[in-house]
Design brief:
Structural class: alpha/beta
Number of strands: 15
Largest sheet: 7 strands, mixed
Strand content: 25-35%
Radius of gyration: 19 Å
Number of helices: 10
Oligomer: single chain
Distance between the termini: 13 Å
Order of helices and strands: EEEHEEEEHHEHEHEHEHEHEHEHE
Shape: globular
Amino acid sequence: MRAIEITRPGPPDVLQLCERPIPSLKEGEVLIKVHAAGINRPDVIQRLGHYPVPPGASDLPGLEVAGEIVDGDLSVGPFKKGDLVCALVQGGGYAEYCAAPLRQCLPIPKGLSAVEAASLPETFFTVWSNVFDRANLAANETLLVQGGTSGIGVTAIQVATALGHKVFATAGSEDKRRACEELGAVRGINYRDEDFVEVIKTETQGKGVNVILDMVAGDYVGREINCLADDGRIVVIAVLGGAKGNIDLGQVLRRRLTITGSTLRPRSVEFKEAIARNLQARVWPLIEAGQIKPVIYKVFPLEEAVAAHTLMESSTHVGKIVLQLQ
């Protein structure tokens, strides 16, 4: 099969088209003929040599795919050969065939293409796990999304809004700020021109937000504490702004604040299966009803993975970048 491999840590041009054997399958896995694969920031971090591949996972990049089940163990799920699915995987998505745990597969929502479906798993699993499970965003609570036009950001804004929450989101330009509001945020914040802490305090009459989804970390965490409501929660899912920062632990104590975080890739199949079931029950109907829509910025053929990663690193995009194979 054709695949994209990382020849060595480095810039986008270390990605190379290659020939690899079709993956062999483990118990509980199915083989997917890949029609499309999503590109995500962790793929870039892996390419740079900073995101180790979990033991037993493919060294090929790619954490989400959509396509046709062509082989494998179908005994533990509702699918059969020939079914079209999208799946979260630990790696191997940038290829014509990909092995995936059956329990991490979801049906392609009605009305969506393979390209649209391939943009879903990584961000939707991540948002559900962190915003709704770990941070426990509850009824009538508010959410601040840092990086509202990223793949994670557009997902978090839409899912939380569709489930009835008031969402605020930061972005790095006026166009991106408006894009956040078009996706459902009640207030987009251009962090280059505005202080998000002051905007949140003004918009919430001094109360603050209940949950913050943070992909920046670093010095942002200390500022985020200042715009949390009492009993508020910060959940960190990336450290693009640095792994260290100063925080006011006095506020954490007095106001019962929680700072937590997680990475999804190394978690167990059972853990991810629980997320998949919640997504299918709570979110997939909203997608099929048109209340949540995939946001695809650009689609590249597999052999143009270098250009796709170059675009990802530019951060000029709004939403997802996808590789198309079929």
